[in-house]
Amino acid sequence: MAIFYVLLLFIIIAALIAVETKNLLSAVICIGAIGFGASLMFLFLRAPDIAITQIVVEVLGLVILIRATIARDLTFISGDKEFFATVVSIVIIFVIFLAGIKVFQTLPDFGTSAFTAAAEAPGMPEPASQTYISQGLQRTGAANIVSSVVLDFRAYDTLGEATVLFTSIIGATVILRKKAKKLLEDPDK
Question: How far apart are CA 77 and CA 149, in angstroms?
Answer without folding.
Answer: 50
